[in-house]
Amino acid sequence: MLLQAIVNGILFGAVYGTIGIGFSLVWGVMNIINLAHGSFIMIGAYLSYTFYISYGIDPFLSIPIVMFILFIIGYSIQRFLLNLVVRGSIFITLTFTFGLQILIANVCLLLWKADFRSINLPYSSVSLSLGGAVIPLVRFGIFIVAVILTLLFYVFMKRTKVGLAISATAQNYEGAKVVGVNVRNIYSITMGVSAALAGVSGALIIPIMSINPFIGGSLVGKAFVISVLGGLASTFGALAGGLVLALVETIGTIIIPSSFQNLLGFVVLVLVLVFMPQGLLGKRTYNE
Amino acid sequence: MNRKLITLIILLALFIIFPFILTGFWVRFITNIFLFAILASALNIISGFTGYAAFGNMVFFGVGAYTVAVLMNKLSFSFLSSFIFAGLISILLALLLGILLLRLKGHYFALGTLGAAEAIKYIIDNLTDLTGGGQGITIPSLHGSPVFINSFFYFFMFILLIIIVLFTWWLSRSRLGYALKAIRANEEAAGVMGINTTVYKIIAWTLSGLFTGLTGAVYAYWFSYIDPPTVFDVMWVVRMFVIILLGGAGTVLGPVIGAFILESLSELVWSKFLNLHLGILGTLIIITVLIIPNGIMSLTNTGKGLKGVLESIKKSRDNAL
User: Fold this and answer.
1) What residue segments make up the domains of chain B, in order of their start?
2) How far is Cα B104 from Cα B55, in angstroms, rounded to an integer?
3) Residue A205 to residue A180: CA distance in whole angstroms
4) A184–chain B Cβ distance below 8 A for any pair
5) What is the ipTM of this complex?
6) Beta-carbon separation of B284 and A263 below 8 A
7) Looking at the whole model, is its pTM more than 0.90?
8) CA of B186, closest CA in chain A: separation in Å?
9) Which residue has the higher pLDDT, B35 or B276?
10) How many Å apart are CA A223 and CA A27, to the nearest integer?
11) Domains along chain A?
12) What angle is formed at CA B157 by the lines to CA B225 and CA B288, rounded to 5 degrees?
């Protein structure tokens, strides 16, 4: 029972990791808490759902298309709207992104209705067994994709010109401008990458979770916990934060009575904020 | 100054005779605006004056409402005594949460208060014996004719609103108010100047919580049925934020004006476009933030009419890259 919970926690933790990476990227680079991040995840999930239901495309295969669409959405939102308020106070950006979130929720409500949606894959009952634990093939695939994307993101940030420009802008906005970084464009790309990662996370959760248009808010709460745990600093910090949250949740399912499970995430959030605001890895600035 | 005073007296007189000349629908409509004006003014103390984005302020609303509900339903208290208890419990809660959370700053404080609010919502949801849990709880309703009931809540909210507006007016020119504004401008510098920032922040948060809790208490008696998802809904706080952004954060009358605008618009949108009301609210938020980030009250500084609006748009470019 406990072993199974730990296995499930690790498998799902990688998805939480990709959620956290996208969220902390925008937070660390632009100092924006993007309350619409959960909505980006939701859009990714709905797109994946539609590709599967209407065109029969397996959710694992539609990931590149979902990522591309979300990149365009994120890029445009930053370029044409958020760049106009990005230097404002945190009230401005918090309220703005919340406005965005309820706008997206309403659009999704009109397009996909209020019902809970999920994908039931034909191979969803196939599973491997490892020692005493069962590993469903779908969850294993989700884990692998999430880990690969985390690694790709790391390489992107460390080895490509754009990735380095993003880090430079995060560390010193004026300095980056001086050395010829087009900050407007870099901010837009950052939001695009963050949205693309959110889209993948959505595509990865839809085969195992059901979603409705109002799920965005609770996903943002989780993204925040993961980012704070990870310490905003590194790709692997976010992955570690994701693993910790998923393990707390799955092990909590066994130990704590079911009616109190919803409480757990928020208690973790407050405790982490109060006692460990610098995160698990203890870094405070982006890509320190 | 004299003209301002006369306008104010005329407005006051109008609002006093409204319940006697308007239909029940409009009296309830204005009562609802008062409710949001009080909530926004309360948030204005911690967020507008002090600069702390208290995204979890609905926790006081919910706890105030539940205090009245539990005391009246389970212990048959009168409304007035449970109203006072709701205030006391809000103060207590604000002190406890403040000690825990006010050491956080910026985004961390915003999300920390939100987390605490959600946690308390689930606790109340799970105390089924006391609070009725997810089933909700009924509150013994006020007896009397519909006209009497409508006017009772109208005047109750109206008096509460006048109290908080007078209080905010006093705050804006008191030592306490200046200390809070100093914290908003630069907390470290305020500390160096000899302001005990922790104490002042806790005072501001407690006052904000007290008024929010009292409003929740009246809300519970007014609606005579509450459940956790309704009174702890994050939309309460979002509306409060939109109202103070619309009206002008850190001003005395901004939240009141913002409440009149937002709730009138909402009513219009609710009745005409039921499926789109969230989308329209979202769009309104985005446009407000883009065009008048400092609120309508800031237009009095930039000039009147169209020229003022254009000036404000020009000023809002400061927020852009």
Assistant:
1) 22-233
2) 13
3) 39
4) yes
5) 0.79
6) no
7) no
8) 13
9) B35
10) 11
11) 2-275 (1.10.3470)
12) 95
